[in-house]
Amino acid sequence: MEQTMLKEQDNREFSTVKTCLSLLQLPITDNNLTDTSLWNQAITNLKQKISNHNVELWIDPIIYLSMDEDFITLQAPNTFIRDWFEIHYLPILIDEIHSKVGSKKLQVLWLIKEQEVGYLVNEKELSSNQPKELLSKTPALPEPEFGMFTHYTFNHFVVGPSNQLAEAASKTVANSPSVVYNPFFIYGGAGLGKTHLLCAIGHEIKKQHPHWNVVYLKTESFINEYIYALRTQKIDEFRRKYRELPDVLLVDDIQYLKGKERTQDEFFHTFNALFEQKKQIVLTADRYPHEISDIESRLLSRFQWGLTADIQPPDLETRLAILLQKADEKTISLSIEVAQFLALHIRSNVRELEGALTRLAAFANLKKVPLSIDLAKETLKTQLSYGNTLSVESVQQEVARHFHVQVSDLKSSSRKQSLAKPRQIAMHLARKLCQASYPELGEKFGGKDHTTVMAAYRKVDSLNKSDLGMRQLLLELETRLKSAY
Length: 485
Ligand code: ADP
Ligand code: MG
What we know:
Helix content: 55-70%
Shape: globular
Bound molecules: adenosine-5'-diphosphate, magnesium ion
Strand content: 5-15%
Number of helices: 22
Distance between the termini: 46 Å
Radius of gyration: 25 Å
């Protein structure tokens, strides 16, 4: 299971590679294998081993698109069917194909017709009378086992100013489950490492308590499974599974509960039951609990009973460190120059950064050329953000205007609080928003030592975490500066 999940993650990335390749109309490989019969044979054999019902549900919806010496490309109607197929049937098919084509490992590329997880049924449908055969087609849900991505561990998580609080708190939770922070709530934008940390907590707890039942669950799965349990009169089983059995419950992307009133109610009771039994609960969401709309306030307030920690977009150094680590993990030979180039130009989130690295490596591999800045420019054209670098001068001007001081005051060495604070804020914002090193910034702030800028950055950064007023102010200034890009 864990391996499958790991594979799934890789496949998703490769899926982007494939899409990208076909967009550019490059040949996938020079000597295409394209042997449909291999796939058909494997499918025919598989079909003989499973019931017609399962063939209809899980095998028939999968469309085979192509195969070459590295990749098999398949299409699924949605991620749910893909996941089920991947877990239960794909390994059998791949084994059979491998046995015929030799030892070379095939990667599977998925094209998903429907991008988002389409709920198989929605809550409103529950009360309507569905025809029997439709009910029977509602797939049984995959067991939400401890199937977390195996490489999402603390070891593989790069710590920087943007995530150090969340990482430290996650480790505390993992080392003392249910003792310190319960629930623990991690929030932050897409692709910033929430799922990674959530799984890392799970892995660590499992390592220290091998017999504990650590349940990792996507909110979508909870919703789907709940609905399925209601439809099939298995609600008692469902409740036992979530209210009694877990020692630790890790729920990813809780914002998807929004608008799902009945599931929210169920989750409320699940939460209470586990909490009363002193079971650790960890939740993630893409925003701060109270900013999630359409979720009952009794739930939102519970989410904050313990500790909430946010993850911010990583700064340049962290992006660089993440890239180097990912390259190492994927055994991609990446020079520091190319890494710097990517880290400088891909600033949105870690997933994109990682995706860019994978794509670049795939291109280099296909073209049989080394990874270079030129290749990066060529292959990542649409992803790289050029020309919108904010200048240090504009940050200084905006901050000076806000605090009614002069830019020269920001460059001075006066220690007056009324000047030191705006100066530190300007240094922090310049570091965060402009692509400038600490020594360069020192130079632009009146020839100061780089350690002064560094200290200012850290000070404001820690205030950003502890002082709501400071956070508000930084957000306001940052938004204003970004809109002036
Ligand atoms: P989220 O759940 O916040 O959308 P993920 O946890 O899925 O993001 O992270 C996206 C990708 O980025 C994953 O492959 C994850 O391993 C990687 N990632 C994010 N932050 C870090 C980090 N600090 N160090 C290493 N990898 C990271
Ligand atoms: Mg996630």
